[in-house]
Fold this sequence. Notes:
Layout: H1 3-12, E1 15-17, E2 23-26, H2 27-33, H3 39-55, E3 64-66, E4 69-74, E5 77-81, E6 84-86, H4 88-97, H5 103-117, H6 123-127, H7 131-156, H8 161-172, H9 178-184, H10 199-218, H11 224-244, H12 260-276
Antiparallel strand pairs: 1-2, 2-6, 3-6, 4-5
Amino acid sequence: MNKLEDNNMLFENIKHIDDNGNEYWLARELQRILVYKQWRRFENVINKSKIACNNSNISVDDHFANVGKMVDIGSNTKRETSDYMLSRYACYLIAQNGDPRKEVIALAQTYFATQTRKQELSEKEYGELTEEEKRFYQRDLTRKGNYSLNIAARNAGVKNFDKFHNAGYKVLYNGETANDIAKRKKLRYREDILDNMGSEELAANLFRITQTESKLKKDNIQGGNNANKTHYNIGKNIREVIKKNGGTMPEKLPTPEKSLKEIEKEHKTNKEISLIK
């Protein structure tokens, strides 16, 4: 088992499955893994996460189910103990609102963000996709994510979007701007770098995009320079997580032989030929 898988097992080991096959985590168990000694402090994080959930027009009750129970504290006395059944999405929000100084919070952000991105497909379905299919799937999510990120950046006051996006790229790619990445990949003028990434590289960028959008909104970041700094810090954190997990740095990942545009064109041509036949 590699280090990434080992880290993931922290959260897999406390995952539960209900009678209907739905997975969930218990807040008290997650509290222990995320190293919160006091329940009241962890419950503050849960409450912030519930607010974030509600602000996204998502039903809080669907993701944070109160399952408090009475426990015996001695002398024939019982006391109600709070607990919650948490969905993947709830755990993702908790990781987002957790103490960023804790290393395990960064691991939780990586794990639950990855799983939440895949929630439209089951783990089994995603695992059975070919690399080409994973690329298309991740690219679609990245495209949607960039659209939302640009709106959040505009609301924060960003005017120079090239500078804003490069703030994230440069630190994630060890100093490379979008143009530098394109040159290294030997792309044609104005060819999309995201169309020329494998699924692992796309996933790293999707993480950068979703985390930056969330941070801009959650902290109500205002001003172009502050937004750029936020994007830079998110990219830096993700690179550090990749390093800690023993992963391959984005600039070291191989460039696929064919871009997604080329593959789409081939699929279209083959379809037209089959129709003619």
